[in-house]
Amino acid sequence: MKIMRQLAVVGFALVCVASAHAARVGDVTDIEWREQAARFFSLRDPSVRYAVGGAILMGVCCGVLGGFVVVRKMALVGDALSHAVLPGVALGFLWNMSKDPLAIFAGATLAGLAGTAMVRAITATTRLKEDAALGLVLASFFAVGACLVTMIQRLPTGNKSGIDKFLFGQAAAIGRDDIVLMAIVAALVLGLVAVFYKELLVSSFDRAFARASGLPIAWVDRGLMLLLAFTVVIALQAVGAVLVSAMLITPAAAAYLLTDRLHRLLLLAAGFGVVSGLLGAFFSFIGPNLPTGPFMVIAASIVFAGAFLFGPRHGVVARWWRQRDRAARTRRENTLKAIYQVWERRGTEQEGVSFAELADRRRETVPEARAQALALAAHGFATISGDSILFTPQGRRRAAEIVRNHRLWELYLTNSANIASDHVHDDAEKIEHVLGEEVVRELERRLNYADRDPHGRRIPSAAEIHGDAGRNTEAGGVT
After folding, report:
1. Threshold 0.85, pTM exceeds
2. How far apart are CA 16 and CA 240, in angstroms?
3. Which CATH architecture is the domain 24-314 placed in?
């Protein structure tokens, strides 16, 4: 739902961008895009230099603070704060009727802090939960800010004020004074995060331990909210109040899918924020009438989509591949077990098992049994001779391990859990593929190295599996 909300916000910004004049970085539209790209990377235009610098500073701050927002599950707080600062922006402009970066920064910061204080007051004095309080503050503050912005635009010089750019952002309007302020705020944010990293880490993941350690949780939370307000304010000029929450959440959410370590998450989130900001500035520069802020958010969303799909641990593709590999391994091991059981049922040491016997045991067709045999051969577990499949030493050993795991688990459930012997097969079918060697050794000790399962069938011993009892397994045959 959060992702859908961000996409909806992006769509709304793109629809409204014409009326809001969310200007692009570049103003030259009559030259080829390659020349525009070369012009962008040369950084010879002051507007490009300021836009690139602002994108980098905004990306770093939003990434680092967004990391704490994500791990603390404060996404709605960041969203409310980004909308609550708009009245402060308008009041900062009205202070001296100009876009004074310092006045706007002070006004927006105070408005953001007032919004968070109002949320706490509502939750502390009423029955409303935090999500309802955040929704009330977000809507009311943003409505007041929109009214003030409209009033300013109706003033004699209102249309030239540029105050409307704080709604949707305008990286092209970032000037030298804005860059200086952003650099100071970025240095302050990164410095304080570095100094109080341990306190932020503990309070983010184990608040009970932090309280027991005497850590002033309330002051840490207030300090984090202050830094978050600073970050939101300096990002307004680039992406606007409507989209700044996306720059806080999306890069950090992408990093969250790639690592379980906070310091790595913060570094990745900062990197993703910078990349998203630079891509937004670049595409805005080379394309006619392309807004910068929405393109920054789109770039961040693309980064998130990449992490969501292709992340090595939590990515959709990686999970699908692991499930596919696990299912294929389970099928191979079930086939090995079936071959072992056919050989065991005979009671003689004959060479190989026919495809017909395997298909009968597996309740499959002969072509399906042949396909499974070919899969075993491809992995070195068996060889095929005519219409028969023969164990390799590796296959014989793995088959005995699977049978041993299955029967040990059945015996454990009947002896220790008092489960009837006719109710343990299905559970053993699942657990046999995941039991590690240490767990098997512990099961054997607890079962006093029993050699029969609840059904009277022999449990393969360690000596048989590892060849310690003088069993000589020849390659390509079953002993």
Report:
1. no
2. 12
3. Orthogonal Bundle (1.10)
